[in-house]
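Request: How about a record?
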Amino acid sequence: MTSHRLTIVTATAVLLISAGCAPGTVAVEYRNGDGHTFSRAERRAIDAVAARAVRDARELLPALPAELRLTVQTGRRVIPETGETGEIGLPGGVYWTVDPAHDGGVIAVVNAQLRATLLHELYHLVREARFASFSLIDRAIGEGLATAFERDHGGAATPWGEYTSEVSGWTEEFLTLPDDAPRSAWMSRHPDGRRWIGYKVGTYLADRAVRVSGLSLAQLATVPTATIVEWGSQPNPGR
């Protein structure tokens, strides 16, 4: 399972299933928990955003599974900046956790973040079905590609993928890490205070690979990690 967010915690309580799923759309499940029951307005907002996001994703990512299911639940282990987090379960599952106590509540988080998160996780479904993520660099490239895709098509800020000129040095550092380097330190928060190093390095390499190859981010979903790194590491790719 892959996520640019935090690992989700399954909420307890009743599982509510929305209307049946037509081919090519998405079935949405609701898990009430943590003292929160999803209201009709919240479910309508989630259903609408999810349907549009899946429709748009299918145009960009035709390899998406025919059957998709979105499981929505509440939880506190989310990104502080966004109030939510996502994760996948192959072949066609996406799990979205939202903190009802985040600024503006569930609907505000839905409107600000759900589309972008879904596009990120749907990208993972396509890539993970083709390439298992074994190494730290696999993880960084997968997250970087999905983050760049989310950034370009999701309409929300992606602070975990925003890099500055210092990222070239971070990339050199990252590519020389041993296989047993601690993933949490390099993908989440490093002891030296840096955050999201792997995400930023991966997004940087993804952007450079697009310029070198002439391929779109959607096309790069089925390109191996080593090739992305090779393209992304070429000096001064054209803009």
